[in-house]
Specification:
The complex is a heterodimer of chains A (112) and B (114). Chain A is mostly beta strands. Helix content of chain A is 0%, strand content 46%. The chains are: A mainly beta (112), B mainly beta (114).
Amino acid sequence: DAKTTQPPSMDCAEGRAANLPCNHSTISGNEYVYWYRQIHSQGPQYIIHGLKNNETNEMASLIITEDRKSSTLILPHATLRDTAVYYCIVRERETSGSRLTFGEGTQLTVNP
Amino acid sequence: EAQVTQNPRYLITVTGKKLTVTCSQNMNHEYMSWYRQDPGLGLRQIYYSMNVEVTDKGDVPEGYKVSRKEKRNFPLILESPSPNQTSLYFCASSFKWGAPYEQYFGPGTRLTVT
């Protein structure tokens, strides 16, 4: 699976959009981009994933650049409960073992 | 409610005393997996199962056993726990293995071995 690079930390004001970047410059054509988050010591929570097109669900939006070398997770109206470590992961379709490789992630702190 | 449950949530035990951490999912998922999380090391996969009676080693299987006799359950067994198995453990499941299927995680089991 391709390696990802994320900033170690970000801050965001409550009610504002949080834009979390991820670089995956070595991504291959059959690799998906996934985002998970982990609120302190809780189980990681799936947020969203995409292959080529931008995606939106009830939690967030995922913007993938045309060359697929980077992406941005957008939380449109961040709340204090969105404070968590956010992980960007790329996964090859039908990877044997289906291991999720979590990197260091981005610690997002939402401030009142 | 669709969920992955783990029991117990917290456990303190002594070296060598066999223990089992249970994991159950109610989503009819084929794929299940165990991870451990340690400070500075992130999440590491212990074992996984692609379906009933099909299990395989992950990255750190030493000292652990698993079984998958039913689709919904995937217990993690520590035959002779040691202090280096003190960790936070997560069970996860997904509809099938691999992308594009997302994995759902349980709430975690914090294990301390003294």
